[in-house]
Amino acid sequence: MQGTVASFNEDASGEVVLDSGRRVAFDAAAFAVSGLRFLRPGQRVQLEADADGSIVAVRILTMRP
Fold this sequence. Notes:
The protein is mainly beta. Helices cover 8% and strands 43% of the residues.
């Protein structure tokens, strides 16, 4: 899933607006997988979810050749 960061909180949780328009929250544990220090509103990210739909990873989108 891909989307745009809507908010990023001090506790490293946040919310993303998916390309479909649906809002999805993520917790600090999912953000910790990224190895990043912060996200900014408007930044594009890729979300990974487990079988029950919980977000397990938040990663920055990168350009690939």
